[in-house]
Please model this.
Amino acid sequence: MLDYMIYLLAFAVGSILGLLYSYKQHGEPFVAVTELNIPALVISIIGWVLAFNSGNVILSAVGFFLGGFVMGERPGYGRKETAIGLVIAVIVYIILNSGMM
Model:
């Protein structure tokens, strides 16, 4: 039960920090950036893969923190990066748990 609380807190803190970072990064009042943000994409992939596949409480919490950081950005930012990171994390999970390795 404590594990889930740690994950929720890490995700919430990451979301808040992602929102603050996003407001500092983008001052425009609406979504004007349409290209893929490569640093956010890398953070998202690392975060979601760690969150779902690490098997360790600390590394999973770090993964949820990183995933929350990208997911918690201002509305319209980080949505593509989060979706790609989640898809890659699910693919890695399926590969690792299918017995192919």
Q: What stands out?
A: The helical segments are 2-25, 38-53, 57-71, 79-97. The CA atoms of residues 55 and 69 lie 21 Å apart.
